[in-house]
């Protein structure tokens, strides 16, 4: 038996033995403790992140009950469970779809190309140097604004999300493969697509660094590339655009982010606390 097969089987057994049914009652108690909506959601995100191990997708659509019984899940599974718990308490949420930069992988490209043949252009949201991701936005009635909640990586709140996902310092293991998000889009209850790339990847990113990123030489290229990708990525999620033909644009995004990081570090720029 090949070593790769042995490692895969060992990992599968480990997940199967380690995963336990997740208690919605316990999760609910975490959510029901006193506090603002962001504080309550933050506690629940931390709880789910610890209680429900992340596993790579197997392309099965499970119900919330099946995910809870499995006690483990991918990013979409985490978002479904989190959404169910929050909506059960009357907290307004909406689904978010993301694309992020990744180190080039010919294996991922081959898998993605096969999925495009099978399911259409929507599968091109992952490929050689990019991958897709799912999380939620939650409505905060006090500030009348949306904030991110992602239990698969254990982060909630705009500042925490930007530090963890876009910051130039060392990354936690949970996001080590995600170089930087380059497309963010929310979905309303009736599936209308709401552009969110500028809010997070341009305005929010710059504000987190006290507005100083906008003065860096690489900033215009980053902004232009993010804006260029937005309609294409949105079209890909509708299965209207094949992103595998946009390799040059992903290279430009990766180069712009890399230059931003180098320029920010040369000036010792750090995000606000």
TrEMBL record:
Q: What is an example of a Pfam family matching this protein?
A: Transglut_core
Q: Gene3D superfamilies from the xrefs?
A: 3.10.620.30
Q: What is this protein called?
A: Transglutaminase-like domain-containing protein
* SUPFAM superfamilies membership: Cysteine proteinases
Q: Which residues form the signal peptide?
A: 1-21
Keywords assigned by UniProt, alphabetized: Signal
Per the UniProt record, the source organism is: Geothrix oryzae
Cited InterPro entries: Papain-like_cys_pep_sf, Transglutaminase-like
Please report the stretch or stretches of sequence annotated as the Transglutaminase-like domain: 67-153
């Amino acid at each position: 038996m090949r070593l790769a097969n042995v490692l895969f089987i060992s990992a599968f057994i480990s997940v199967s033995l380690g995963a336990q049914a997740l208690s919605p009652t316990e999760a609910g108690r975490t959510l029901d403790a006193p506090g603002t909506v962001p504080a309550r959601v933050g506690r629940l995100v931390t709880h789910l992140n610890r209680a429900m191990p992340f596993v790579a997708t197997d392309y099965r659509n499970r119900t919330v009950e099946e995910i809870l019984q499995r006690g483990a899940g991918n990013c979409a599974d985490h978002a479904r469970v989190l959404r169910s718990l929050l909506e059960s308490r009357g907290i307004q949420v909406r689904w978010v779809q993301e694309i992020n930069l990744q180190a080039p992988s010919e294996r991922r490209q081959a898998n993605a190309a096969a999925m495009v043949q099978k399911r259409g252009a929507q599968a091109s949201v992952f490929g050689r140097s990019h991958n897709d991701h799912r999380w939620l936005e939650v409505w905060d009635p006090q500030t009348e604004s949306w904030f991110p909640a992602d239990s698969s990586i254990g982060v909630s709140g705009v500042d925490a999300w930007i530090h963890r996902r876009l910051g130039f310092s060392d990354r936690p293991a949970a996001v080590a493969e995600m170089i930087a998000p380059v497309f963010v889009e929310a979905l309303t209850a009736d599936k209308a697509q709401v552009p969110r790339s500028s809010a997070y990847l341009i305005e929010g990113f710059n504000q987190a660094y006290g507005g100083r990123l906008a003065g860096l030489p690489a900033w215009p290229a980053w902004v232009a590339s993010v804006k260029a990708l937005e309609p294409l990525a949105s079209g890909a999620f509708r299965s209207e655009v094949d992103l595998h033909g946009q390799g040059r644009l992903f290279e430009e995004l990766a180069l712009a982010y890399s230059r931003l990081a180098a320029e920010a570090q040369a000036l010792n720029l750090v995000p606000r606390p």
